[in-house]
Design a protein that fits this description.
Rossmann fold; 20% strand; 4-stranded parallel sheet; alpha/beta
Length: 340
């Protein structure tokens, strides 16, 4: 692994020194190729995005090469260099670390390869496009759901990893709702943490520690459904599941089941078919140098990036049938499997 990383960095250094070779595609046909690099495939959400993106891109005549970086920044860069050298036309990246890909993007541009940041922004470098949901709005919906059910009491905040720019946007969103309640003294934040890798084990350990200290908890804002699941496991072991309001987001199957069972209060549904198909369409148009259609702009720190941002939707027990089930995201049989 060390040898691979050294070789990858060596290629980047060659570019930075102005010594990078001209782009020489290894593919000898005229098929458009899109490289899609995920941070991990262990997350249910990413598997859905992958399948929808690939199906749409192939329907548009492109071939998609999908690789998993296994939550490793060095490997993500290595895969990117390999795909560029093999002649992909566009790179689509779900960044493991928002700050680690600047040199890769510069190398891609030196070889005339476009770069799209999928769902997670890549910071401080001039990427070609970004698609995501309004993550500040996602956080806002989580905070609103919690405060409507628990307008006063002790709150725990379980943020995602600091490597992911979305974690900060979610945090901004739910604090925009919580702030006036905190200022009035109605809500007290009795614990807050950032959980690397978005691991449910991390949320389980943290919530267990707080509960074992004797601290009363009335509500938990968990930055995604995996973290919510870990928190609810800890609550269950203390006979508190369903008594403490817990939020999440992503509308994972486990979360939807917990909502109808009464142990999770809400999730946020992001219709990923809209996101994945739009990303595939834009990637193919970029590869063909065609007009990509309307877009917005948002800052990634150093640059204003062209982007397309989609709206999320709060899901509770009251509207789950009209949202994730009606959209075919899950069937009623899947969601209500444990409810008689």
């Amino acid at each position: 692994m060390k040898r691979v990383v050294v070789l990858s960095l060596a290629v980047l250094i060659m570019y930075l020194c102005g010594c990078a070779p001209d782009k020489t595609p290894r593919y000898e046909d005229d098929v458009l190729r899109i490289g899609f690099i995920y941070e991990t495939m262990t997350v249910e959400r990413w598997q859905r995005d992958r399948d929808i993106f690939v199906a749409k891109a192939e329907n548009l005549g492109a071939k998609v090469i999908v690789k998993d970086a296994y939550e490793d920044s060095d490997r993500q860069r290595e895969i990117g260099i390999e795909m560029i050298d093999q002649g992909v036309d566009v790179l689509v990246i779900v960044a493991f670390d928002k700050d680690s890909l600047k040199d890769l993007v510069k190398y891609a541009h030196s070889r005339d390869v476009k770069v799209i940041a999928y769902d997670r922004m890549i910071k401080d470098v001039d990427i070609d496009f970004h698609l995501s949901f309004d993550n500040t709005e996602v956080g806002y919906l989580m905070g609103k759901a919690a405060t409507e059910k628990v307008p006063a009491g002790n709150y725990l905040i379980l943020n995602g990893t600091k490597r992911d720019n979305n974690s900060f946007m979610l945090n901004e969103g739910y604090y925009s709702v919580l702030a006036p309640y905190i200022e009035k003294g109605d809500i007290k934040i009795v614990g807050e943490t950032w959980i690397d890798f978005w691991r449910d084990e991390g949320s389980y350990d943290y919530v267990s520690k707080i509960l074992n200290s004797g601290q009363q908890i009335d509500a938990i804002i968990a930055a995604n459904d995996q973290l919510a699941g870990g928190a609810i496991t800890a609550l269950s072991e203390n006979r508190l599941a369903g008594k403490v309001f817990v939020t999440g987001q992503d509308a994972e199957l486990g979360a939807c089941r917990r909502i109808v069972e009464g142990t999770q209060g809400s999730t946020v549904y992001k219709p990923i078919r809209v996101l994945a198909e739009a990303a595939a369409e834009i990637a193919v148009k970029m590869a063909k140098d065609e007009d990509i259609g309307p877009y917005e702009t948002m800052s990634n720190g150093a640059y204003d990036i062209n982007c397309r941002i989609f709206s999320p939707q709060l899901v509770t027990k009251d509207n789950i049938d009209e949202t994730v089930i009606k959209d075919g995201f899950f069937t009623a049989e899947q969601v209500y499997i444990n409810v008689k």
